[in-house]
Predict the 3D structure of the following.
Amino acid sequence: MRFGPERQNLALERDALIARMQPASLDLNPSLWTAVEVNLRTFRQRHSLAYQRHHNEYHRRAATLRNQIGGLRVRVSALAQPTQVRELGEAVSVDVPSRFEDLAASVRNCSLESDLDLESAPW
């Protein structure tokens, strides 16, 4: 999986927040709590938006893939037909239809609504 600049920036921002929230850092300068709180709130908003974009894109692509797979069912079924003709010899790859169905079942759909509310429940 490739991570684009947005995710890389979020990872850096997360790491910086973790460093600022270390007890040793906050003990030396308790006034940092306010800045940490603001930065954490901003990070959560940016992370939520990035996740929603990722979620929507993933499921858009999954829907396209499901449609493509559905269009191949007839061809896969046709591949199984020659295995029933003895004159053609021993069957090769008899399990293609079942493997195809396993593939089709592996493309999952999300049951959540498209408007995710990650502020109230970020999991």
